[in-house]
Amino acid sequence: MRRRSDLLSGLIAAGAGVAAGELLAAAARPGASPVLSVGAAVIDATPTPVKEFAVRTAGTADKPLLLAGIAVLTALLAAALGPAAHRRPLWGVLGFAAFGLAGAAAAVTRPGAGPVDVAPSVLAGAAAAATLTALIALHTGNGSPAGEPRLDTGAGPRAGEHGPATQEPGLATGTGRRGADGAAAPVEPGRRRFLATAAAVSAGAVLAGGGTTLLRRRATTSVDESRAAVRLPAPAEPAPPLPPGTPPDFVTANADFYRVDTALTVPRIDPAEWRLRIHGMVRNPVTLDLGELLRRRTVERFLTLTCVSNEVGGPYTGTARWLGVPLRDLLDEAGVDPGADQLVARGADGMTIGTPTRVVRDGRDAMLAVGMNGEPLPLTHGFPVRMLTPGLYGYAGSCKWITELELTTFAAYDAYWVERGWAAEAPARTASRIDRPAPFTRLESGTGVTISGVAWALHTGIAGVQVQIDDGPWQAATVLPPPSDDTWVQWRLPWTPAPGGHTLRVRATDRTGAVQTDARATPFPSGATGWHTISVTAT
Ligand SMILES: Nc1nc2c(c(=O)[nH]1)N[C@H]1C(S)=C(S)[C@@H](COP(=O)(O)O)O[C@H]1N2
Ligand SMILES: [Mo]
């Protein structure tokens, strides 16, 4: 019973501390949430291979999994602190102080954090330590009942037994010790007090949790509302019309567009408060608000975005109609120093993304985008403003929630993923994918089907797509014309399968004549290569 009370005390104390800290953060400094700060720090510190593994195996569930992991670890440590504090209350205080410090350190090192951001974690640690001390005092009560000698010998308690109470809170009555094996003993007053306090603290923690949820929901709602109120300008240069006959799924719906970022919680930026600072190696540093940005010339383009972490045949690629302001115009206003070979974009989540200045100025449609498929950017895709660089992997040119553009050099600065070993310059590799039939589909032999998919050689363009069935010759697929070389193409090939198992393979040729390589490469450090190959059966 004692033992259980100790574990329970540790858990309740941690719950109370976290609840208090999260509530304070939600009310005053959402960025300083102890749990989310620790989670973000863990993400930043996770070695690349582990991160790769997490993205590969858990996909977008990687973040909920991380939070669950933090919760389990916290619970285990907190439960262990209970028995430790029973032996020596100081252990409980020190243990939770360490938790609080870890949270505070994580919170204060988040991008844009200030010294006050330690407050929620400090509160969490203090509340947990105080709760644990009180609960232990309550249930140890007269931990050394009359008649029993105190074991002040310095020898530790034997396993399964309890050490001497080092505190006499004077609250509990009763003998405490008896009834440890449960059965017949009636609930003693001291125990009742402990249980009542534990229940009250737990209820308080649940209430605080509810309050936190409400406050967070309110913050999201208010950004949702400001997003709904954003009026996108009509593009000065509309996107070229899609070639006739383009299937609707050429464009990826916003809700289906892949999402890849390190942000544990989606940054919520009030568009009225958004500012973009262009600075560094420029003649005229510029600061713009959203209204000022949207008064500039706007263009609309179909662009395909893809992630360097996309495996061969993987899903992290999408195409949308983006509305934005050409980056070149803004850089011209700022007057870029010719020595500044790197443009570093910073997001509100602290992400940094470095792009060669030469690339964003070479005439391609690099832009600061505000619209995606006719809507303001969804929160998950960078609201209110993100950068896009056609032809480069997302981590190398497409910063979401952008707040800063700094002109610097590659020699002077490594952006987030470059620091973690990924390539500094990252043109997206030519890729092709079979979407239909799906792998392992059972087809009907003798009945015609259409093999179809997408292929991209971004900013170079696709010249052709070929499909190989079993070990037959490479056959040219029909390639539907794209609106520009900055998007994927859709392709198709009719086929009537013979009975049996079949292997389908696809490869693309870009407009320079280069054939997509079959050499398998992992996403790290500069993008996967290899031919997408699937198996199907016909019966
Ligand atoms: N601020 C910020 N921008 C970011 C990222 C990020 O983690 N934070 N991830 C990048 C990566 S790796 C990719 S592939 C694209 C994905 O954009 P999407 O989520 O809109 O598809 O955003 C890029 N921009
Ligand atoms: Mo990415």
Low-confidence stretches: 142-184
The tally of beta strands, per DSSP, is 19
Structural class: alpha+beta
Instruction: Encode the helix/strand succession as letters.
Output: HHHHHHHEEHEEHEEHEEEEHEEEEEEEEE
Would you tell me the overall average pLDDT? 90
Shape: globular
Task: Give the percentage of residues in beta strands.
Answer: 15-25%
Bound heterogens, unique: the ligand Nc1nc2c(c(=O)[nH]1)N[C@H]1C(S)=C(S)[C@@H](COP(=O)(O)O)O[C@H]1N2, molybdenum atom
Let me know the largest β-sheet. Answer: 5 strands, mixed
Strand order of the largest sheet: 2-1-10-5-6
Helix proportion of residues, in percent?
25-40%
How many domains is the backbone divided into?
3
- Whole-angstrom Rg: 30 Å
Assembly status: single chain
Q: For the terminal residues, how far apart are their CA atoms?
A: 64 Å
User: How many DSSP H or I helices?
Assistant: 11
Summarize the structure.
Helices cover 33% and strands 21% of the residues. The chain has 539 residues and is α+β, with helices and mostly antiparallel strands. Strand 5 and strand 6 (352-356) form a beta hairpin.
Structure characterization notes:
With 539 residues, the protein is of the alpha+beta class. Helix content is 33%, strand content 21%. It is built from 11 helices and 19 strands. It has helices at residues 2-28, 34-45, 48-58, 62-87, 89-108, 119-140, 189-229, 290-294, 327-334, 357-360, 416-419, and strands at 275-280, 286-289, 299-306, 317-326, 342-347, 352-356, 367-372, 375-376, 386-388, 402-408, 431-436, 442-443, 449-456, 462-469, 474-476, 478-479, 489-495, 500-510, 532-538. The protein has 3 domains: 2-144 and 188-217, no CATH class; 248-419, Oxidoreductase, molybdopterin-binding domain (Sulfite Oxidase, Chain A, domain 2, Alpha-Beta Complex); 431-538, Immunoglobulin-like (Sandwich), CATH 2.60.40. Helix 1 packs antiparallel against helix 6, helix 5 packs antiparallel against helix 6 and helix 6 (119-140) packs antiparallel against helix 7. It has a 5-stranded mixed β-sheet with strand order 2-1-10-5-6. A hairpin with a 5-residue loop joins strand 1 (275-280) and strand 2. It is globular and about 85 Å long. Bound molecules: the ligand Nc1nc2c(c(=O)[nH]1)N[C@H]1C(S)=C(S)[C@@H](COP(=O)(O)O)O[C@H]1N2 and molybdenum atom (MO). Molybdenum atom (MO) is lined by residues 260, 307-309, 393-395. It comes from Catenuloplanes indicus. The chain crosses the membrane at residues 65-83, 90-109, 121-141, 194-215.
